[in-house]
Design brief:
It is found in: Nucleus, Nucleolus. With about 270 residues, the chain is α+β, with helices and mostly antiparallel strands. Among the domains are: about 50 residues, no CATH class; about 110 residues, no CATH class. About 35% of the residues lie in helices and about 20% in strands. The chain is built from eight helices and nine strands. It is extended, with a radius of gyration of 30 Å.
Length: about 270
């Protein structure tokens, strides 16, 4: 029922005709990568220049022509990028400064210029757009004090040790979580404050859905609270949206477990 409301039937059938398999990405999301993936990738990229040099020397005929044309285009693009990054000396016309008194006749037709160092704004603008795309549309949230977030627990026979802390805010703990032995557990997350579902409001459908929380992506108060799964105002959480029948920007239907990031807007909580 939700799918028929969210998307017209003809659009849904048209999307079904497209290939739906993102098997590699799905496997990476479920099981992760090899532990030495980054190191192997770095070495592969380091070897790539030697392979490219060997191809440039040995390729003959049509393959050699195609390779040369490809490398020519790549180098031209590289030079353009480097030129955009470099500072260039430019001459700017002076319009603002109006001098008192009459100018001599031999200076009337001469434009006065000033030299200035100008950095290309194209790269700056692209960087700003890229950074702005992932900005959270929230004002700055009030930082939560450590005394408000944690409660000090006294332990030991004489209650003199104070190294344990109990979290006093709502938290998310994954399904496969196993507690440390209570004697060595520094941060205690009470069972009554653990949440596994979140109410997510869809802005277009004007509906609220009760969805499973997958993980806590970022807590604005710091990485320690993010690793503990503490959820306060402004926290970005990842939820499972497979029940909504959404369509990805590539036109693929979301069948299995799919995640999306949302920002917590808690009016009654700090």
């Amino acid at each position: 029922m939700l799918r028929s409301l969210a998307h017209p039937p003809h659009l849904f059938l048209a999307v079904l005709l497209q290939p739906q398999g993102d098997h590699i990405e799905l496997h990476q999301k479920r099981h992760g990568r090899r532990l030495d993936h980054e190191e192997r990738k770095r070495k592969r990229e380091a070897r790539e220049v030697h392979k490219r040099s060997q191809d440039a020397r040995k390729l003959l005929g049509a393959k050699g022509k195609r390779f040369a044309n490809k490398r020519y285009a790549e180098k031209a693009q590289m030079k353009k990028t480097l030129k955009m990054h470099d500072e260039s000396t430019s001459r700017q016309k002076v319009d603002d400064d109006v001098q008192e008194g009459a100018l001599p006749p031999y200076l009337l037709d001469r434009d006065q210029t000033q030299r200035a160092k100008v950095l290309s704004n194209t790269i700056k603008q692209k960087r700003k757009e890229k950074a702005g795309k992932w900005d959270v549309p929230l004002p700055k949230v009030r930082p939560v004090a450590e005394e408000e977030m944690f409660k000090v627990l006294r332990t030991g026979k004489r209650k003199t040790k104070q190294w344990k802390r109990m979290v006093t805010k709502a938290t998310f703990v994954g399904a496969g979580f196993t507690r440390k032995p209570p004697k060595y557990e520094r941060f205690i997350r009470p069972t009554g404050l653990r949440f596994t579902k979140a109410h997510v409001t869809h802005p277009e459908l004007k509906c609220t859905f009760n969805l499973d929380i997958i993980s806590v992506k970022k807590n604005p108060n710091g990485p320690m609270y993010t690793s503990l799964g503490v959820m306060t105002r402004g926290t970005i959480i990842e939820v499972n949206v497979s029940e909504l029948g959404l369509v990805t920007p590539a036109g693929k239907v979301v069948w299995g477990e799919k995640s999306a990031n949302f920002v917590l807007l808690l009016p009654n909580l700090p």
